[in-house]
Specification:
Helix content is 35%, strand content 22%. It is an alpha+beta fold. It folds into 2 domains: 121 residues, no CATH class; 128 residues, Nucleotidyltransferase, domain 5, CATH 3.30.420.10. This is Reverse transcriptase Ty1/copia-type domain-containing protein.
């Protein structure tokens, strides 16, 4: 680790500490990745993925160099350590590591074009004294064209900054958007429970219920009301674990409008 005043480098991470907070980023690592792939002067992309783009295994384009694709995606995966804004798209393109096509390679290079315009992005943590754990959960529905499974996503903040996030394809196929959201909310609740235990171990016990925001009213109702049996009886038992957490006051699901 090299100390340059308040700026420290460690395993590709940059930590800058000032009087009112700490900023963590991977600017140098991202710049080196762009240089390695000859993308330093590329055209900037406003988003890491095309709007409503659906990648699939057989997209009609020819196969590309698998080794180069894996090297590129591997670099992007490490970049998600502090860049949660690319977690979803990196998770999607990593599904095609075994047999990438030219279109898949183009989608991966678009992520680099987005990174080229957002090198200064990172995580900022204010110097505050009150720390409350809270989270957000969301999902797509049948986003994977191969098996029609949905992708769950969550992000948790503690105090002033984000500390935990995930974007992962669900293990089962949801029969409705509400079921997909319910499954995502349960995964988020399990993560919240684990985080609360970690915080208790370091003497930062969360006395109040952890609030998790979602944009689906049906999911909130299903977590509170067992009378939805006719609509939810096919859902795996483990998914209903969120009901126990809501009933005992460990978790509170609150509605958050999608536009917010």
């Amino acid at each position: 680790m090299t100390d340059l005043g308040a700026l420290q480098f460690f395993l590709g991470l940059e930590v800058k500490q000032v009087e009112d907070g700490i900023f963590v980023s991977q600017k140098k690592y991202a710049a080196d990745l762009l240089k390695k792939l000859n993308m330093t002067g590329c055209k900037i992309a406003a988003t890491p993925m095309n709007l409503n783009e659906k990648l699939k295994k057989d997209d009609g384009t020819e196969e590309t160099d698998a080794w180069s694709f894996r090297s590129l995606v591997g670099g992007l995966i490490y970049l998600t350590n502090k860049r949660l804004d690319i977690s979803f798209v990196v998770g999607v393109i990593s599904r095609f590591m075994h047999c990438p096509s030219r279109h898949h390679f183009g989608a991966a290079k678009r992520v680099l074009r987005y990174i080229a315009g957002t090198l200064d992005f990172g995580l900022w943590y204010d110097n505050i004294s009150k720390f409350n754990l809270s989270g957000y959960t969301d999902r797509d529905w049948a986003g994977c064209l191969e098996d029609r499974r949905s992708t769950s996503g969550y992000v948790f903040g503690f105090g002033s900054g984000v500390v935990c996030w995930s974007s992962k394809k669900q293990a089962t196929t949801a029969l409705s958007s509400s079921e997909a959201e319910y499954t995502a909310a349960t995964s988020s609740a399990c993560q919240a429970l684990w985080l609360k235990r970690i915080l208790a171990d370091i003497n930062l016990k969360q006395k109040e219920a952890t609030v998790i925001y979602c944009d689906n009213q049906a999911t909130i109702s299903m977590s509170k009301n067992p009378s939805f049996h006719g609509r939810t009886k096919h859902i795996d038992i483990r998914v209903h674990f969120i009901r126990d957490l809501v009933s005992d006051g460990s978790i509170i699901l609150k509605y958050c409008n999608t536009n917010e």
